[in-house]
Amino acid sequence: MSYITMKGVSYSYQTYQKKSGLKANLADLIKRHYQSKQVLDNISLSIKQGEKVGLLGPNGSGKSTIIKLLTGILQTTSGTISVANNTPDTNNADFLAKIGVVMGQKSQLNWDLPAADTFKILKSIYKIKEADYQKRLSKYLSMFQLEEVVYVPVRKLSLGERTKLEVIAALLHGPELLILDEPTIGMDIVSQHALHSFINEINRLENVTILLVSHQMADIEAITSHLLVLLDGHITFDGSVHQFIKKAQLPKPQITITHHTDQSPIIAQEHTQFKTDSMQTTITDYEDESTITLKLKDIQNFQIDNPSLEDSLYELFKKRKE
Ligand SMILES: Nc1ncnc2c1ncn2[C@@H]1O[C@H](COP(=O)(O)OP(=O)(O)OP(=O)(O)O)[C@@H](O)[C@H]1O
């Protein structure tokens, strides 16, 4: 059964066109000119409970707008949205209790207070039971190894520590859905890995549905299994990462063999083309039924370069700009 459903959703922003010059400013006071900009056009999608979904798209494609619609900050121009059997609404406390949001660019932790103090405020806002609060807090702090830094004012912490505490803040009330918008911006690779494992673990242990928006392919590849690609206000792809790479029809994986001598280690081949240059042989073309027989003793290294998610996205976004 679907946990998040968007049916025929469109969204347009209304922007006020301010002209320059005194005369135009005075005219604006009498009659304002608005322009409508359609950002989402007839979007339909479905996400199951417990899924880990990545939302990808170039800058300005409408990812944050989708998140604002799913959390009830914005209302659709047309179409319907259901999240956990609710129409998203920021005035509905029961709905808000079901979601947790982490915005990489915005903080819900008070800069001057230790995170422990903000957590107590959140406990009271969300009316979290003492036992649940203590259980979740100690579990999450220990998973991230943040037991000590939680008592240090947030402004003194590293970006990685702050982001991890932001994720804990979003999970303290036990949401069913965790939305992460660019969570790893500026984080080093060790902190990124810690965040990936934490999110995967929370999903595995508590079946929290994950919706991740990120330009970092490492985040998408480490966390998500279901990919949505947004382009020019439309969902242009809805499926697995593997299917997306396959659909992009990139060149075949390149196979390179490095050998100990100038002599190629290929002793037999069928339906294959290759070239040998000094101590390296590259398979330049092959079919599904191609075979090669290699003299293993002569091989120093055998490398297969598969097309990556990043390559596939680059091809898609590049075509759009052309
Ligand atoms: N409040 C607003 N008023 C008018 N236009 C807006 C408003 N907010 C966003 N837009 C426009 O809507 C489009 C989509 O913006 P949105 O922030 O959803 O994109 P995004 O995919 O999240 O981009 P990014 O990857 O850069 O964060 C952009 O062209 C943006 O200029």
Structural commentary:
One of its GO terms (molecular function) is ATP binding. InterPro entries: AAA+_ATPase, ABC_transporter-like_ATP-bd, ABC_transporter-like_CS, ABC_transporter_ATP-binding, P-loop_NTPase. This is ATP-binding cassette domain-containing protein. Keywords: ATP-binding, Nucleotide-binding, Transport. The structure is a single chain. The protein is α/β, with parallel strands linked by helices. The protein has two domains: about 1-10 and about 40-245, P-loop containing nucleotide triphosphate hydrolases (Rossmann fold, 3-Layer(aba) Sandwich); about 255-305. Helices cover about 35% and strands about 35% of the residues. The chain contains ten helices and 13 strands. It has helices spanning about 20-30, 65-70, 95, 115-125, 130-145, 160-170, 190-205, 215-225, 240-245, 310-320, and strands spanning about 1-15, 35-50, 50-55, 80-85, 100-105, 175-180, 210-215, 225-230, 235-240, 255-260, 265-275, 280-295, 300-305. Strands 5-6-7-3-8-9 form a six-stranded mixed beta sheet, with helices on both faces. Helix 5 packs antiparallel against helix 6 (about 160-170) and helix 9 crosses helix 10. The two termini are about 40 Å apart. The mean pLDDT is about 90. Adenosine-5'-triphosphate (ATP) binds near residues 15 and 59. Adenosine-5'-triphosphate (ATP) binds next to strand 1, strand 2 and helix 2.
